[in-house]
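User: What would this chain look like folded?
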Amino acid sequence: MWDSTMFLSTLTPKFYVALTGTSSLISGLILIFEWWYFRKYGTSFIEQISLNHISPWINSGENSENGSSNSSSTSSQNNVPECKVWRNPLNLYRGAEYQRFYWATNKEPLTYYDMNLSAQDHQTFFTCEADAGKAEYEIMQTAWRERNPMVRIKAAHSALEKSAECAPAYILLAEEEATTITDAEKILKQALKVAETNYRKSQTMQHQGSLMEAQHRRDTNVLIYIKRRLAMCARRLGKLKEAVKMFRDLTKEVPPIMNVLNIHENLIEALLEMQAYADVQAVLAKYDDISLPKSATICYTAALLKARLVADKFSPDIASKRGLNTAEMAAVEAIHRAVEFNPHVPKYLLEMKPLILPPEHVLKRGDSEAIAYAFFHLAHWKAVDGALNLLHCTWEGTFRMLPYPLERGHLFYPYPTCTECADRELLPSFHEVSVYPKKELPFFIIFTAGLCSFTALLTLLTHQYPEPMGVIAKAVLGWLSVPVYYLFEKIDSVMPFNLLQQLSRI
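Assistant: Here's the prediction, encoded as structure tokens.
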């Protein structure tokens, strides 16, 4: 006791200033790192380490019964579908649209991750095993992987110099070199002639071996892709009837590429632009099926059609007094269903968040899908009188039905937890990613913030009032040492005085 008192009496105020200052600095650095990690990855670094490394080590000694129950619960969780990135059915043209945005703002509208996914898609659909030994197709195989757009364009021209019948080279030039939709359409029409010729040639030889079958499959993919992009050009240029006819013809095709392109969403958007609501309802009747994958376009278009029947006469004051009638209830339920599927969309439709150019790939139920949907469909909601007002009055009611969206859903699976990280990869850095549900600050960020503030305050007080703070510090340390000395005295009274000597003899 006397030694500790002597030690405390020798500590100067400068020691306490240095101690509290160092503690404040360390906790401040931890706070900055924790905050940066939380902003980037949406979780606490310390919690991640605890859950992924420390907890398994502590729990490694649990019995087999607990292990079997954990494995069963894990397998049940795996039944929930994981986050999957889909190709955006309404993706823009790089040269005619994305590049013009870059020239105007000097901001990159696409991320490298998004463009890399597109390169993988193009390699999958536009190359095959039969291309070995064909110089033009070998050039295109490497062209899709090039990061520099000018190198890709130069490679496409080089491929066409080798052979004017290389349809994928025309596709690349239409996507990236053409600076207007009209120019892109001209190139795609050239590509269509070449693709049709290649398709007819490979169709007659598709049964002559696996290589010819793969070549025919590739030529089919190229032909369908070109037709779809030509239909999208017609839609952009205002030739709606022509675009709708082309989209309808394409929806009758059955090759595997159709599962990726989701052309029915292009058809729905073009029909909404024509305000052909009966035709839109007919398309929804085919694709809004419980056995088929859902999307924001399907869910929100169904809500728009039901809202259209009541929106022009809807008044929240009157509805609160008399209640909702059958048609209004159906519209509100459709809106709740759409919001449950993708809760990010309403803020873009109601212009509570700024829109950006949509990415080339989207994550269903994520912010990227919400941007892709609202970018084209905001005008269709505005065209229906009162639809946005009905959405504004009712969309937040969805969250009262889903108090724990990550644990259970109402009409769909629980909301996936992986959307934020995937959306951050797909969307440019200048866009503030929408997060649902809103995450509370992790405990360790709050703890380190409190620790940093407390130690900084102690440092300031010790520097300004060294003698009183030194007295207080000694008193606190004295109080804290009382239980320790009391424990030592009790142990001393119980144990024999010469215990250590006896143990050393043994």
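The beta strands are 85-87, 361-363. If you want, I can go into more detail on any region.
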